Amino acid sequence: MSEPIPKNLSPKALNQWLMDESSKPTLIDVREDDELVIAPFPSPVIHLPLSQAFAWKEELPEKLVKDQPVVVICHLGVRSWNFANWLIQQDWQLEVWNLEGGIAAWSEQVDSSVARY
Question: I need a surface site. Which of 30, 48, 67, 94 has the fewest CB within 10 A?
Fold first, then answer.
């Protein structure tokens, strides 16, 4: 049996999901502080910069809501994919999604007011 992997989620599909009041996912943004200053995601996120994993790693399970899907966000979708894989490997029984193309794709496809960098 193959290992589970994160599900890919297009920016447009995430936008639709966020507009559905009944079932919002937990959003985790793994970009660094300076990246969030340049292009913040336009919905509330749990900010977990990967370079600071030592500071948040132990408390992460407390920040996640059981049975609530998680969508991981980064600049281009690579760091978020890696982090999403790590989340799945923790075996916390989470439904994990990766925002395809990251905040850059979000800016192109959904909200052009989000800065590109």
Answer: 67
Tell me the C-alpha distance between 74 and 102, whole Å.
Answer: 5
17 is catalytic: no
Domain 7-109 matching CATH 3.30.2270.10: the answer reads: no
Question: What does the block give as tokens for 76?
Answer: 């281009």
Q: 51-76 pLDDT, tens per residue?
A: 999 999 999 999 998 889 999 999 99
DSSP H or E stretch at residue 107: helix 102-109
Closest by Cα among 28, 22, 24 to 6: 28
Please identify which of the residues 9, 74, 84, 88 carries the catalytic annotation. Answer: 74
Tens-place pLDDT, residues 8-36: 999 999 999 999 878 889 999 999 999 99
Sorted by where each begins, the domain ranges of the chain are 7-109
